[in-house]
Amino acid sequence: MKITGAKIFIESLLKEGVDTIFGFPGGAVLPIYDALYDAPIRHILVRHEQGATHAADGYARATGKPGVCVVTSGPGATNTVTGIATAYMDSIPIIVFTGQVPTPLIGNDAFQEADIVGITRPCTKHSYLVKDVRNLARTIKEAFYIATTGNQGPVLIDLPKDILNAETKFEYPHSVNMRSYKPTVEGHIRQIKRMADEIVRSKRPLIYAGGGVILSNASEELVVLSKTTQTPVTTTLMGLGCFPSDSKLSLGMCGMHGTFRSNMAITETDLLIAIGARFDDRVTGKLDEFSVNSRKIHIDIDPTSIGKNVRVDLPVVGDIKNVLKKLNSHLKHVKKDWKKDSKSWLRKIEKWKRTYPLVYKQGKSAIKPQYVIEQIAEITKGDAIYVTDVGQHQMWSAQYLKFKKPRTFLTSGGLGTMGYGYPAGIGAQAAFPKKTVFVISGDGSFQMNLQELITAVQHRLPVKVAIINNSFLGMVRQWQQLFYDKRYSHVCMANAPDFVKLAESYGALGLRAKKPDEVKKTIEKALAYKGPVVIDFVVTKEENVYPMVPAGKAIHEMLLV
Question: The dihedral of CA 359, 363, 369, 370: what is its sign?
Answer without folding.
Answer: positive
